[in-house]
Structures are given as structure tokens and as C-alpha cells.
């Protein structure tokens, strides 16, 4: 994880996910079948090709379930790495009970975040060479935004605003309530003169109004390829332009080639399939080796 992720918050989140699984009790199956002194070596293994994100979070889960000094970890790759089916990502040695108790929470987080990174990389690869940048949105799972946006960065994408207070995005309902694009922009700029302001529009005419009002970033919502080209031509570099709404991977390059600066893709976080990763016990050691 990088410095943009609040590690204490992540630790609290992971504790809550572990507690959800244990529900205040114990792992009854593991407790019944595994000797408390047994030690194993486990590997986190990719079951499909993709991009990894969340290995430090996987480590955190394991260390919180086990006593920190009772596990040894060896990384084979780091977050952001491209992996192939069968690649070992992380090797862990520790008490078998603890490894198996931590397994599902570890994989839930690691597979999801790696899925976000993998999908992001596909979009990034699709627009490579066009100059356009793939960005995420606030369409994230509740309480997972920080981690999902981190995973987007692992996949080569960039982040849009984190929340409602670090940047302004004037959307259609704001425009309607304020009485027009120009008036909405004026009100936001007056209230927050130092804040980044983006204006969402659904027509080329409104895009020009936004630019003439002083907007430096305009979101072109649900425009087709000809409309995007027209907007790029008429704005003529006076503002950054972001395509958004209904974008699909198979049309990503065509959208990027219109000359827009960004593609905002909600699917990176709200529709990413997991990357299949498994925890495999590779060896069992005599409890006297613990």
C-alpha cells in the first residue's frame, strides 16, 4: 500500500472482516480437525492471469489472525505485478489452524482488489498510445473506496476525486437546481475558490458554456463518438475533457482517439470480476518444528 491509504483505517476494516467471519466464536471445522501445534507452509497462487493488488492486506489479515511472531512470509511478487496462472504470489509458514482461519477473509480482499487492478489494466492497455488516461469514479463498494482506488492505481489507472469534499463535480441535478451551467459554476467557484471544479454536461453547447464560464475540466456525459469529436474540436484545448457514461471496453480506444483527456469508468470498481487466487497448503511440518 502507498501513503494515500490510511493504514490504521485498513487495520480496523480488516479486524471487522475477521470478526464477521468468526462472529465472536471460533473456526469450528478447523479447531476440530487440526492439532493446535501443527505448522504448515501455504502458498497464495494465481489461478488465472491478471494483475495483483492487496498483498499487504493479505499479510495483515494473516498477522491479525495469528500472533505476529508465529508467521513467516515471503513475497514472490509485489502489488501491480502481472502474473500468470500458477504463479506463487506469497508464501506463508505458520500454525495451520491460523492459516486456514484467515484463508477466506484473505482471499475475499485479495481476489477482489486484484480483480479491480486486472480490469483497470485492460482498459489502460486498450487506450495505450492515445494519450488518454483511465480514471475511476465514486461507484465503489461501501467502505472499500480507499482500497479499490488503490487497486485502480496498481492497474495503471488514476483516481478521480476520493469523496464529496476534495473536489467539486457539478452534475445535471446541480445545474437544474442552480438554474443553469454558468450559474452553478459561479456558485461553486464563489464558495470554494481554491477547489478543483468539474462540470458535467450532456451537449456540446453546454460544454462550451462551461468552458466560457471558466471550467478547466468538463465531463462529457453519454456522448457518442461524433459528439465527442465535436466537443474536442470546439473546446480546442481550453479545458480538459473527460468522457463518461456507458463506456465499454471494446469502444475504449475509439473514445480515446477522439482526443478526450480522460475516460471515467465506473465499471473498474462496480463491475470488476475477481481474479481467481487460491491458498494451497504446500507442506505440513511436525509440530515440534513450530
From TrEMBL:
Keyword annotations for this protein, in alphabetical order, are:
Glycosyltransferase, Pyridine nucleotide biosynthesis, Transferase
Q: Where does substrate bind?
A: 104, 137-139, 161, 171, 200, 221, 244-246, 265-267
Output the InterPro entries linked to this UniProt entry: Aldolase_TIM, NadC, NadC/ModD, Nicotinate_pribotase-like_C, Quinolinate_PRibosylTase_N_sf, Quinolinate_PRibosylTrfase_C, Quinolinate_PRibosylTrfase_N
Q: Where is the Quinolinate phosphoribosyl transferase C-terminal domain?
A: 116-280
Q: What is its EC class? A: transferase
Q: Can you state which reaction this protein catalyses?
A: nicotinate beta-D-ribonucleotide + CO2 + diphosphate = quinolinate + 5-phospho-alpha-D-ribose 1-diphosphate + 2 H(+)
Q: Name one Pfam family in it.
A: QRPTase_C
Question: Which processes are annotated in GO (biological process)?
Answer: NAD+ biosynthetic process; quinolinate catabolic process
- Cited CDD domains: QPRTase
One GO molecular function term?
nicotinate-nucleotide diphosphorylase (carboxylating) activity
Per the record, the pathway is:
Cofactor biosynthesis; NAD(+) biosynthesis; nicotinate D-ribonucleotide from quinolinate: step 1/1
Q: Which domain of life is it from?
A: Bacteria
Quinolinate phosphoribosyl transferase N-terminal domain segment(s): 27-114
Tell me which GO cellular component terms the UniProt record holds.
cytoplasm
> EC?
2.4.2.19
Instruction: Indicate the quaternary assembly.
Output: Hexamer formed by 3 homodimers.
Instruction: Give the protein family.
Output: Belongs to the NadC/ModD family.
| NCBIfam families associated with the record | nadC
Q: PANTHER family recorded for this chain?
A: NICOTINATE-NUCLEOTIDE PYROPHOSPHORYLASE [CARBOXYLATING]
Function, please?
A: Involved in the catabolism of quinolinic acid (QA).
Recorded protein name is Nicotinate-nucleotide pyrophosphorylase [carboxylating]
UniProt source species: Kribbella turkmenica
